[in-house]
Every structure is written in structure tokens, then in C-alpha cells.
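Hey all, quick one. A colleague (J.T.) asked me to put the uracil job into the tracker so the inputs and the C-alpha cells live in one place instead of scattered across chat threads. No bug as far as I know, just bookkeeping. Sequence used:
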Amino acid sequence: QGMRRLDQLLSSLGYCSRREAMAFVKEGRVKLDGVVLKRSDQRVDSALITVDDLPLEAPEGLLAMLHKPVGYACTHSEDEGPNIYELLPSHWPDRNPVVTSVGRLDKDTSGLLLVTDIGDLVHRFTSPKAEVEKVYLAELDRELDPQLVEIFAKGDLMLRGEEKPCLPARLEIVSPKTARLTITEGRYHQVRRMFASQGWHVEKLHRERFGPHELGDLAETGQPREQAGRVADLLHDLAHHPEALQQLADLHRVTTGAAGDAAGDL
Ligand code: URA
């Protein structure tokens, strides 16, 4: 992935400003292959760098899975109450390119959310053409009617104010008031509006799967900034896990250049 200037590398990964990088180095916190570095302007291989004896976090591109709790908005704005970026490990919100969610979940929806700094991945995953499957578990206000299965599967369901019908969706009734719904689009409040169009109110909504990524038993992220370890559990450092990138490439036609591009313009 090439050599980068140490101060630019550390600042692009959110560790510190370029100016502060000098202090980091002076304090002996930065090593290359185990040897303390003396200069912050030298070119280095990011794979060999440690800060406080820890390897750099996803230096060549980041894709992680987050278990979003209810009550957090998918926005970078600080004015809309708690947001998901408060839940990420401390360096991530300061990275450049910026870490963003791949699509969004409503504030009141919990479950699987991908975050990445690879802009290209966001586009490929959220493009309507990609038809990435999203699987939701919904709790309804009253007993489900088996006829909904066919209504959602037909591909002619119109949502209020929209011009095109929803693509066919797969509904599986799990219990009288619980259903699993698989959709391949991502319209605004789509699941809630699909049920609402038929007279049901969604009381609880949870995403279990996004494309090939399953939430599994990943713990819900609790208080802001406390759960770095858990978020990082499912971190794929694309540079160090080329097979993960290959998987994505197979599924979403991402070129293997994506991780390199994400390394930025340095
Ligand atoms: N559909 C919704 O209604 N809300 C979400 O968060 C996701 C899909």
C-alpha cells in the first residue's frame, strides 16, 4: 500500500494532528518494526508502525459492523441528540477519509449497521442496482395476516407519495405478532411504511443482516465510547484481510483498487 509520511499517516487515522505527531514521536510512542522513531516527517510503511505498542487501526481502509442500539441517529450532526458516531472507537470519528454508515437505520431501529471510510463501498452497497438484501425482524401491534406474505411478494405495493411500487419482498411470519422481512431496497422508513400501508404498526424493528453480513451475537453497543473492543471485534482491515475484500468484490463488483483509493490522497 506504499509508504506514507508518518505525520500525515497518524493524522489521517485520527490519532493526532500533524503538529502533534511531532510530540508523539519525541515521547517515544511511535515505533517502526519495534524501533522507536525519531522523525515525524519520514516515510513509513503503515503495516509496521505501532503507537503505544499497538498496531495502527485499519490503516488502509476500514469496514466494521456495529450493533446499533435504539435511540441513536445515523447522522454526523451534533444537534439531533445521540448519534452513532459517538459509539465508535475514539480515533475513528477523526479519520480522513471520514467514517460513515453504509445507509441508515432510523433512530428507533436497532441492529446491524456497517461503517466504513471507503466511499466507493458505500455507493456499491447502497445503490438500488446492487439489490443488497436487508433482513429485518419486526414486532407488530396486532396479529399478522398470512395474506401479507403474498401482498409483499408481488412487487406492486405502492407506498404513499411514491411513483414506483416496492420490489418484491420476502415475509416470513415467525410468531403471531413477529415477522422477518427481507427487502432489497432502502427507501425512507421502508419497512415501517410497508406494514403501515396494510394497516399494521411496527412497534419494534431490528436489522439482522445486511448483504452477506450477519449481526450474529455481536453485543449491542452500550454507552458512547465504551465499547471499542466490541465494535472492533468485527473489524475487517481490508489490507490485512484481502479475502474479505475479495468476498466483497465477488458480491458487489468492488474493484480491488478500493482499499488503495481509501488510503487517501497522500
Ligand atoms: N425500514 C425502516 O422503516 N426503518 C429502518 O431503519 C430500516 C428500514
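Adding what we noticed when we looked at it: Residues 222-242, 249-266 have pLDDT under 50 and may be disordered. Residues 242-252 form the longest helix (11 residues).
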